[in-house]
Amino acid sequence: MLSPVEKTYSALLFDMDGTLLSSIAAAERVWAAWARRHNLDVEKFLPTIHGVRAAETIARQNIPGIDLAAEVAWVTQGELEDLDGIMPIDGIHDFLASLPHDRWAIVTSATRELALHRLNAAGIAPPAVMVTGEDVKHGKPAPDCFLLGAERLGVKASDCLIFEDAPAGIAAAEAAGADVMVITATHQHEFVTPHPRIAHYRDLRLELLEGRLSIRAEFA
User: What is the mean pLDDT of the chain?
Assistant: First the structure.
């Protein structure tokens, strides 16, 4: 049964990786190779990479004498070259096609170049507004990126519904004062969240109610 309409929104903000498209296999191949170069425990390290900018992921490892810019460039180049297996989350094409073009944005920790490569690989046309890792000083879990995305759409973040999949992104959305819908398509392990969850976009329904967006879904 579809959930009842409880709230409407000015706009929708979407994370990219794990939310619009699945890139987990490609990303983990590149990051696993990077971790092995630095003798890190790959199994423990990989769960920490999702939803966070490369520079912040690398800096958190506290590797002595590391050239942060060079390491970020190494990872970025690897991700640009490895697009194998990237695919859209089920139902996303139809759902995005139902949205007014000026009422949604992508807000991702990826660089703009990488975001465009992955969107192209998944067959998703980029929206008019896209906030990427280079656009903000503080990445997720700081709210800066979502605040900027809402600002560029001419709305308040608190009047947006944010689609996310990773804890860092969910924390950023919460800090921005927005409602959150969690996409679980790429989740390998459950994590606790108070927010509604959906596995895909096939069962989402969009309605325009007096110019505002209403989203109805079968919640998991």
Answer: 92
> What digits encode the pLDDT tens for the residues 118-172?
999 999 999 999 999 999 999 999 999 999 999 999 999 999 999 999 999 999 9
pTM recorded for the entire structure: 0.87
The one-letter amino acid at 54? A
Rounded CA-CA distance 23/78 in Å is: 13
User: Is 3.40.50.1000 the CATH classification of the domain at 8-23+86-216?
Assistant: yes
17 catalytic residue (yes or no): yes
Cα(103)–Cα(153) distance, integer angstroms: 7
- pLDDT of 1 reads 31
* Residue 67 is among the residues annotated as catalytic for this protein: no
75 token code pair: 């990872």
pLDDT digits (tens, 9 = 90+) for 120-134: 999 999 999 999 999
Instruction: Name the more confident of 116 and 25.
Output: 116
Q: Answer yes or no: are the C-beta atoms of 126 and 115 closer than 8 Å.
A: yes
Q: Give the Cα separation of 116 and 121 in Å (integer).
A: 9
Amino acid occupying residue 176: A
Distance CA 186, CA 209 (A): 31
Residue 51 to residue 70: CA distance in whole angstroms: 21
Q: Which residue in 12, 15, 13 sits closest to 108, CA to CA?
A: 15
Q: What is the DSSP string of 70-118?
A: HHHHHHHHHHHH--TT-EEPTTHHHHHHTS-TTSEEEE-SS-HHHHHHH
